[in-house]
Write a structure and sequence with these properties.
The protein is α+β, with helices and mostly antiparallel strands. It has one domain: Glutaredoxin. About 55% of the residues lie in helices and about 10% in strands. It is built from 9 helices and 4 strands. A 4-stranded mixed sheet has the order 2-1-3-4, with helices on both faces. Helix 4 packs across helix 8. The protein is globular and about 45 Å long. The termini are close together.
């Protein structure tokens, strides 16, 4: 029996997407609901004074190849987004809005797929509006809600709480107060969750 655990993510991270796809399989297989916790990866990097792999050319080149290998191994439809890095601040705030509306899982699945399977330019407001309309979300209402101080403070708090726990990247899994960082640590997180 595997108990639910925490999954810290940001849509900007292709590794978070790949982990997300594996988590959805685990949720079905184990009949559990894993707790998705949105964080702003850029904020975490700033707090830890870390430079993101996307901004280190050698690492960025390796990351694209690595993500494709992982996707192939796990039979995940994946397309490295040509518009990477995606500015995800409002999309991550949108997770909190979607949670209020009881469509969190639907929203997360859709936004991840839009970025990492469809390869859409989610830096473009017009495309974001079209995507939201396709999800039956009113773009104007969404923009107003994501810019509210309550939602802004909510994402800021989740990011600062993650920093306080020692989380520095995404994806990160937290099980029994133990941190497992990286898409390739799902197995370790599952082992801990079965104790």
């Amino acid at each position: 029996m595997i108990k639910p655990f925490d999954f810290y993510f940001d849509f900007v991270s292709p590794y978070s997407f790949l982990a997300h796809k594996e988590i959805r399989k685990i949720e079905i297989k184990e009949n559990i609901k894993i707790k998705y916790i949105p964080v702003l990866l850029g904020g975490l990097h700033n707090l830890h004074n870390i430079k993101a792999p996307a901004f280190i050319p050698a690492k960025a080149k390796h990351m694209i190849r690595d993500c494709k290998l992982i996707a192939e191994k796990n039979s995940i439809k994946f397309k490295f987004n040509y518009y990477f890095p995606i500015r995800t601040l409002n999309l991550m705030r949108g997770v909190l809005v979607a949670e209020e509306d009881n469509i969190k899982s639907y929203y997360i699945d859709s936004i991840f797929n839009t970025i990492w399977q469809d390869g859409l330019n989610m830096n473009d407001d017009i495309i974001i509006q079209k995507v939201l309309k396709n999800l039956n979300i009113n773009p104007k209402t969404f923009a107003l809600r994501t810019s509210s101080s309550l939602i802004k403070d909510g994402l800021r708090k989740k990011t600062s709480d993650a920093f306080a726990k020692g989380i520095f990247g995404a994806p990160t899994f937290v099980v029994n107060n133990k941190i497992f960082w990286g898409q390739d640590r799902i197995e370790f997180a599952l082992n801990e969750a079965s104790k």
